[in-house]
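Appendix B, record 7
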Amino acid sequence: MPEPGAAEQGRQERPQEGGSVARVRAALKAAGHPDTIRAFPEGTRTAEDAARAVGCSVAEIAKSLVFRQKGSARPVLVVASGADRVDLARVAAVLGAPVERAEGRWVREVTGFAIGGVAPVAHLTPPVVLVEARVMALERVWAAAGSPAHVFETTPGRLLALSGGRVADVAEQPR
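Structure tokens (predicted):
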């Protein structure tokens, strides 16, 4: 008979790969990107969690933040360094329209991803994508791969191409 808790431990060691991770994997493959998706049982929900799991700096985590353009159903995806905060006024200035934070339920409906696992690719509704300029200065980045326990490694240039985004200076500026 297995030890108590063995089943739970087994589940923790192998995070479930649902349809969201498979969708990201298929998008990477279709773009000719190597399959660099890795699973981390301890989770990668926040930039700090991801950096700790991967063994990189928080800055090397390319976090995907979903906003909603006011008066529009189209999502706005901002890919920023895990070390930065996004300035909504700067995002609005780039887009020429105000944006607001999106609710978790809406994010899941339009992207197909839960918050903490939003990938920069394979969205159900194609978003407007802005890649924060500071991301482009990094040598490599890790981005969510469809679940709060999966990430993939890439370069900023490939991330920009994969996401179909444009570079924009939307991070909060130091005071």
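Remarks on this record: Residues 112 and 124 are 6 Å apart (CA to CA). The longest strand covers residues 61-69.
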